[in-house]
C-alpha cells in the first residue's frame, strides 16, 4: 500500500515479551498501541496536546491492515505520516516495519480531532499541524 502524505516521524520500539499472546505472537491490539505510542511521541516532540494543555488530540476513527505476524524478539520502526488537514482534524498514517530487515508488519491510519478539554468539543487544529500537512 502506498501511504498518502508526508513522513513526519520515526520511532524505534522494542517488542516486549509481554506483548505476546497465548498464540505466540503479538495480538492485534499491540499494533494499535504502537501506532498510539508513535503518535504521542510525535505530538510531544512538537510540544502539542500534552495532558496539561487545554486542548489535545482524540481519535475518532482508526484502522490497520495486518501484513505479517509480529513475534518476539523484534525491534520495530513505527513511521508516522500526515495527510489531509481539516479545520479541526488531521489524517495520520502509520507503517510498522522491522528495524533490521525493513519488512513491513502493518500499515494503519487514524483520524485525529483536536479537542477542547474544558468545552468537551472539537477545537481548531494547531497551526503547526496544519503547516505540516500543507508542506
From TrEMBL:
- UniProt-listed Pfam families: 4HBT_2 (PF13279)
Q: Which SUPFAM superfamilies match?
A: Thioesterase/thiol ester dehydrase-isomerase
CDD domains for this protein: 4HBT (cd00586)
Q: Which domain of life is it from?
A: Bacteria
Enumerate the PANTHER family for this protein: 4-HYDROXYBENZOYL-COA THIOESTERASE FAMILY MEMBER (PTHR31793), LONG-CHAIN ACYL-COA THIOESTERASE FADM (PTHR31793:SF24)
The name on file for this protein is Acyl-CoA thioesterase
Organism this protein belongs to: Marinobacter salinisoli
